[in-house]
User: What shape does this take?
Amino acid sequence: MIVATTLPVAWLVARAAGLAAFGALTASTWLGLAMSTRLLPTRFQRHLLGWHRTLVWTSLSLVGLHVGALLGDPMLHMGLSGALIPFASPWRPAAVAAGVVAGWASLMLAVSFPMRKWIGQKTWRRLHYASFAAFVLALGHALASGTDLAGAGGPLLTAVAGGPVLWFVLVRILTPSKGRTSRQASQARTGEAAQEAAR
Assistant: This one.
């Protein structure tokens, strides 16, 4: 009983929920990038998009638990403004601000899914560039705001979470999309036709 009363339960719940939220966000980022690079079968795109959206909302739900536990921590004195407004936290304001901005960016992306038919596919895709910022900021928040990733834990998390993201980004940049390839082929055919006409 004495052990139970001395354990920092709120802090432990906050850290566990925060790391789980980052895990869900990382999985969502991996899946979104894999879909955008066409590495996964096209016939599964609808189901994968559903999983992608589910992972985002799962991450946000865990963020809610993370914030609630922090607000309930009697030692931290976070306050609602510190948990929702960047740089308003009295404790490690820059590190907490990174998490706050990542959380708001993730919420914006989650809300954009049902609004896609109103904002248009092109705008929706552009909004998803914010997912890179959300991932990087969430990683920075995880590394800088806690003590459980000290030592080798921090670089290990960065490699495991960030390595696939970097690889997917490189694949997306270096692999031409179908639209780009078709446009280049069309331009090449037009140029050849023009040269034939000039002869």
Remarks:
- The mean pLDDT is 83.
- Residues 9-36 form the longest helix (28 residues).
- Residues 2-198 form one domain.
